[in-house]
Amino acid sequence: MKMIRLAALAAAMLLSFEAVAHAQTTLRIGLAEDPDALDPTTARTYVGRIVFAAFCDKLFDIDERLNIVPQLALSHETSADGKEVTIKLRPGVKFQDGEPFDAEAAKFSLDRHLNSPVSFRKPELAALDHVEVVDPLTIKLVLKTPYSPLIAQLTDRAGMMVSPKAAREEGDKFGLHPVCAGPYKFVERVQEDRIVFEKFKDYWNKDNVLIDRIVYLPIVDATVRLANLKSGGLDLIERVLATDIKDVRADPRLKLSSALELGYMGLTINVGNDKKKGGLSQSEKVRQALDLSIDRDALNQVVFNGEFTPGNQWVSPEHPYYQKAFPVPKRDIEKAKALLKEAGVTPPIGVDLMVPKGAENESVAQVLQSMAAEAGFDLKIRLIEFATSFKQAQAGEFQAFLIGWSGRIDPDGNSYVFLHSKAPQNDGVYSNPEVDKGFEDARLTSDPAQRKTIYEKVTAQVLKDEPIIYLYHRKLLIAHTTRLEGYRQMPDGLVRVVGLKLK
Predict the structure, then answer these.
(1) What is the DSSP string of 344-374?
(2) Between 433-442 and 412-419, two packed helices, what is the crossing angle to 10 degrees?
(3) Judging by beta carbons within 10 Å of its beta carbon (0-12, 13-18, 19+), is residue 16 exposed, middle or buried?
(4) Global pTM?
(5) With b meaning 16 or more CB within 10 Å and e meaning fewer, what string describes 361-389?
(6) Which of 77, 182, 258, 284 shows the smallest number of beta carbons within 10 Å?
């Protein structure tokens, strides 16, 4: 009954939007969660990145083959010593408040990402010393050291440009009324209900913006999302359940787009800030035992019908930076028990497992709970609202956290931000000087072979320490109505709206 009521409410709400829009075309997108702050400097969530794609252009973007392509920037040039990057900016660009986008505005946004005390972009721009304005449409990024992932970082939130005027006026409330230089202009947000955008008439690429309005609707229940798509209440939904793939493909009114994600799903372990001093935080052997209790292949088959890719590193086994010297481990209950004995802990070992609400998350947690119990672990599943889970993670109010990362095109973007001791998203407060140095060294060279050798040593240490137990790599599953034309699925999982058309 609850599911039917939710679906009816969602449908009624959507009808009200259509009445307001009259003849306007409205793209209705069902989200798996409600995003966190709509401020690219402070945002952390994948679902937020999906929304940013509609209104916050970046200096650079990526194409289907992961090539870096221009967006608000036209080109970049790096000096011979790797310490200066000169970026030419696109002329004639306006922010959604009418203010011009120029070199001063680009400097403001990068400075804000780098210097704001609440910024999550700091580690992504850690090598940046300062930004110089060369001329009205040219900036120079002066680095402390060479930094190979820099341009890749500027294809995401670190490269998003915000209106200096709006950011100064709104201060820490900017995320409530965000102003960027993207195709759609923010209209309103009702928390856990809807986020509404309308076409920005002065967008630099306005001829390719073919839909008038976009409404994002957070609907946590994947079954309800799919039901609304089938009934016509939604036009596109993200994160279709793997178990619903056949159902979507069988419906002639729907299309399914998919790609292997760049990121991962795993268990972040609170190794350095566990107030209860549980077994997981006290010994890497206990964490290794938990890892060995997990059958990743079985987890994939049971929960995802074998559609996902088991993994044990921050990149998938198909990625060029995957370390083949450390293959996905097989389950070994006897070895897990032996490690617990060596660690001097007595089963059952209680673990507070924080799990964001959602059907697949809950199923994964239940399978892990059952598997781990055979080795002597008592995983106590604590379901929690998605945005709240991030606040509790930052506060250290967890022992294990089932959480994913949507991924970046450079391996640095999947690792440093969670595993370097000074990174702001290192929720488990993991610290290893050798790992820190390895990540820093990998940033100094652009040679793929050298970087992979460095990452091999880092991977060996991280897999020994186990601050994160990597589990699998998801298949990005986006379903949409056949009325929607022009949709292309990118490996970063974002829903790009430029070029889309509703029949």
Answers:
(1) T--S-EEEEEEEESSHHHHHHHHHHHHHHHT
(2) 150
(3) exposed
(4) 0.89
(5) bbbbbebbbebbeebbbebebbebebbeb
(6) 77
Asked whether the beta carbons of 340 and 347 are under 8 A apart, the reply is yes
Q: What is the CATH number of domain 60-166?
A: 3.90.76.10
Q: How far is CA 433 from the centre of its chain?
A: 26
Domain boundaries, the chain: 2-55+182-260+476-502, 60-166, 264-473
When the pLDDT of each residue in the chain is averaged and rounded to a whole number, the result is 94
Sign of CA dihedral 101, 102, 106, 111: negative
Which segments of 126-175 does DSSP mark as H helices, in order?
Answer: 150-153, 164-170
At residue 414's C-alpha, the angle toward residues 79 and 424, to 5°, is: 90
Alpha-carbon torsion (216, 222, 224, 230), positive or negative: positive
Rounded Cα distance between 201 and 212, Å, is 10
The Cα–Cα gap between 194 and 144 comes to 42
- In contact, 182 and 200? CB cutoff 8 Å: yes
With contact defined as beta carbons under 8 Å apart, do 498 and 250 qualify? no
Q: Which CATH class is domain 2-55+182-260+476-502?
A: alpha beta
Residue 187 has pLDDT above 90, yes or no: yes
Question: Tokens standing for 42?
Answer: 């402070």
pLDDT digits (tens, 9 = 90+) for 402-444: 999 999 999 999 999 999 999 989 999 999 999 999 999 999 9
Give the type of residue at 116.
S
Q: What distance lies between CA 491 and its chain's CA centroid?
A: 12
Using DSSP's 3-state secondary structure scheme, residue 42 falls into coil
Question: For residue 300, which of 352, 239, 360 has the smallest C-alpha distance?
Answer: 360
Whether omega before 491 lies within 30 degrees of 0, making that bond cis, reads no
Topology of 264-473 in CATH? Dipeptide-binding Protein; domain 3 (3.10.105)
